[in-house]
Amino acid sequence: MLKLQSTLVQETWVKAGRTGPRQTLTGVDILHGHVGVPIIFAYPQGLDVARVEAGLREALQHYPIISSRFVKDERGQVVTDGSDSGVQWRVFRCKGPMPVGEHRPPLGDIKHFYTKVMPWQVVGRDTPMLQINVHQFEDGGATLTVRLLHSQMDGSSVFGFMTDWSRACLGQPIVGQTFDRDQMIRIGAQPLKTEGLQMLYKPPLLRFMGIMLRLGWRMLTDMHKQVLRIPAATIAQWQAEARAQQPDAPVPNSGRLAGAYVLKALSPLMPAGEDRYMGMVLDMRFVKGLGLSKDYFGNALCYPEARVPEADVGRLSVVELARALKADPEQVSAEYVSRVIALAEQGRAKNELPRLVLGAGVRTIGASIFVNNCSQLPMYEFDFGTGCPRWYDTFPMTIRMMTLMPTPDKDGGVDIHLCAGRAEIQAVTDRLAADGIPPHPCQLR
After folding, report:
1. 3-class SS at 388?
2. pTM as predicted
3. Domains and CATH numbers, the chain
4. Of residues 306, 314, 304, the one with CA closest to residue 273
5. If exposure means fewest CB atoms within 10 Å of the residue's CB, which of 146, 161, 300, 376 is most exposed?
6. Which of 215, 323, 190 is nearest to 260 (CA)?
7. What's the angle, vertex CA 211, arms to CA 205 and CA 214, rounded to 5?
8. What is the CB-side half-sphere exposure of residue 7 using CA atoms within 13 A?
9. pLDDT tens-place string over residues 22-71
10. Residue pair 41/143 in contact by the 8 Å Cβ criterion
11. Quick count: other Cβ atoms within 10 Å of Cβ 54?
12. Contact assessment for residue 83 and residue 91, using Cβ atoms and an 8 Å cutoff
């Protein structure tokens, strides 16, 4: 357990210098919850604090919505208030060497690097959209922790903002994003059939209570996090095998291959006699024909699933399984995604969003795992003037889930941030060892 000895040396509210428009949060925004999500970056080479703060101030001029607060309007809907209340900026000096990095992921200790925010502390409160904490250590290293509100932005939006923040620090032009939540609301206002959806639905009350109890019990009693690695050489070997098998077919990316490998290891521990499912993240910005801007700022994620027979998971090779793990074509169509958005908008209008459940999340109680494939995202490219980070992390998840990330060296390998039961994590660890795959550096401590 980490004992962080820190002293606050600076605290201020960084403002945009202008106000943004009032915007109504969409059903998809609120569905993701007013949850404070921390993301932490480790810079062994340190950070130029004054430069990082100045870059933040410049970037916010193009993102005034981040400087606002959530309130309820006269209809009882949650909106951004259009104020320039500011982003919380804090700097701490800490004793000892930097305790976070590739050899020591923070896991549950990430709680020491940010202030936790609960959903009931957000709307109508002076709670910033972003809290940014810099911790400087005696060895010159520094961590940058960004606590965002998930109902304001998803990963694409926050990484887009951080890319512009990095550009500001490097003296490069800021690109900005499209701040028009009405795009999503217009899609959801269409007269579409919302019954029978598997991705998002409203179960009967007793079933809903049972789902929540089972998810909660698993989270409290047997949900842990471990970071594992599939090195670049293993990924390259699988991709070479894929080319040899089907020279004219697309080669599965590194995340898809890593996901297939983990599912093969976990399948024997899942309920027998059931098909295996894999929940996936789909960015609606890239759903053909849907009509969202590619740089839409907000939440634009939904969660289709792939389904594979139990016997096929054991029989197929990693490459073959990776090719088989394709999301249901219907669930990634503009028509289906529009229905999901419409159901979320109906739930927002009727204040029923808390009763809706995500099918991919519910199914992790049984024969499924949820996958967030971030292996192509730029978390190791945020240079604020002193170079790029050497470690990225976030808090442990509450369902069986793996987040797939690039390695700090960006060499083609994949780091697997696995949240699962103890026996499940051990099964994947044993499978890696049996296949002669070297352990992650953090497992050598």
Report:
1. coil
2. 0.94
3. 6-188 (3.30.559.10), 200-444 (3.30.559.10)
4. 314
5. 376
6. 323
7. 140
8. 5
9. 999 999 999 999 999 999 999 999 999 999 999 999 999 999 999 999 99
10. yes
11. 15
12. no
